[in-house]
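Dear all,

This email documents one entry for the complex benchmark we are building for the journal club exercise. For each entry we list the sequence lines for every component of the assembly. Then comes the predicted three-dimensional structure of the complex as a C-alpha cell string, followed by one or two observations. Please use this as the template for your own entries, and keep the labels exactly as they appear.
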Amino acid sequence: MPIPPPDRHLHIGAIIFPQIDQFDFTGPFEVLSRIPNSTFHIAWKDKSPVRDARGLLLTPESTLAEVPPLDVLLVPGGSGQVPLMEDETVLSFIRTQASHAQFVFSVCTGALTVGAAGLLRGVRCTTHWASFHVLEHFGAIPVNERVVVDGKFVSAAGVSSGIDGALRMAALLRGDRVAQEIQLYMQYAPEPPFHSGTPETAPAEIVATARAAAHDLAETRIAIAKRITKPATGPKSTSSAAAS
Amino acid sequence: MPIPPPDRHLHIGAIIFPQIDQFDFTGPFEVLSRIPNSTFHIAWKDKSPVRDARGLLLTPESTLAEVPPLDVLLVPGGSGQVPLMEDETVLSFIRTQASHAQFVFSVCTGALTVGAAGLLRGVRCTTHWASFHVLEHFGAIPVNERVVVDGKFVSAAGVSSGIDGALRMAALLRGDRVAQEIQLYMQYAPEPPFHSGTPETAPAEIVATARAAAHDLAETRIAIAKRITKPATGPKSTSSAAAS
C-alpha cells in the first residue's frame, strides 16, 4: 500500500461507546492525533459522554452521520463492544467507512465488531488473547501476533497493543521517520516490571484465573457470532459448499 | 514501605487540567483503576471538561476541595503543567495531599509540578527526557531511569512510562500478583516497531529536531523554577550554606 502524499490531509476517526476499554482508544489516539496534516474525529451515535469500563468519561464530538469519509477507522474494544455486534447502525457505519478507507484498525476486541460487520472473512487478524478463539466464528484467520497487517485491515491484540499497532499505522501513513518522532516524544521504550503480558509468559495460576473470569464473556461473543453469521452460513444441515 | 492490608479501601486520585498530555493520565488510569478495593478520583478546580494537548476531552468528577485524603496522588504532565507551577491552589492541594499520602506518583513533566510544590528537594526522580535538566532547578536529584522510587515519591519518565510506573505502583499497593493480573489483562507485552523511544536510541537527526522543538518550553520551565525557588534559595549572592 503506497504512503499517501504528505500534502494530502488525512481524516482519522474512532468510534467510542459505553463500556469501551478506554486504553484501546487513548493509546492509539496518543499516536494518531500526532500524525502531521491530519484531523482526528471521535464519534458515537450522539455527543453525550460515555463511560469506559472503569468509569472514565470520554466525550464524542461527532455523530456517526457527521463523520466524513475516513482514511483510517479505529475500532476499539472492551466489554461494551458485545452489543455493537448486533447493532446495525454501528455495523453499517463500519461497512460504509471500510469500503473507502485506506485502513480499518481494530484494537483488542474491536476486531470482533469488525468481524460482526462481515469484513474479516478470510482476513488474517488478531484480538485480545481471551477472545482469540472467537475470531474463527467470523471466518477470520486468527494469527497470534501482537499486530497483524492484512491489506487494509490492521489489528492489534489486547488493550496496550494498540500503541504498537498505532505506531505501525503511523509508519504506513506517513513513513518510518514520523512514527519514530512520535515514539521519541512519547518516550516509548517500555520496561514492563513483570513478564505477565501474555498467557504464554504469565504465571500459570494467574492465566487460569483470568481465563475463568473471561470465559462467560467469550461464550457470549461466540453465541452472537453464531447467531449473526447464521444467514450467511445457512442452517446447520446445509453443506459447507452451499454456505459460502 | 509495607503493603497496605487488602481490606483497607484505597483512595487513588489524579489531577487533570487543560493541555494535559492525556496519556500521562489514561495510561496509569488503566492500571490503577483496576486495583482491588479502591476508588479512583479524577479532580480539577471545577468539573468542566478539559482538553488535552491534542484536543481530547477529559472530564473531572471531583473538585480539588472534594477529594478525600488520598493514598496515591497521580500528577500527570504535558505542556499544560507550566502554569500549574505558579498556581498556589494546585500547589497547595499537592502539598496537603502529599503530607498524608502513601505515594505521590508523577508521570512525565508532572514531576516539575511536584517540584514546584517544593516536595522534591533531595529526592531522586525522573521526568520526560526533554525536561530532565529542569529537575535540578527544584533541588531534585535527576536519575535517568524509566521509573524511580524514592520513599513516597514515585516518578515515571516521559508519557508512556506512566504504564510501567503504574504497574510498579500496583505492586507496591497490592503486591506483585495483582500487578501481574492487570498486566495480563492489558496484554502488556510491548513490541515497539522502532528503537526510537529514548534520545540514546533514536536516530540522531530525530533527536536533534525534537530537542530544538522542545527547547523553548524547557527554558520557560527553568525560568519559572528559578523565579519560584528564589525565596527559598535567596539572592544569587547568598552562600549555599545560608540557602538551605
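Observations: Chain B touches chain A through 63 residues (CB under 8 Å). The longest strand of chain B covers residues 38-44.
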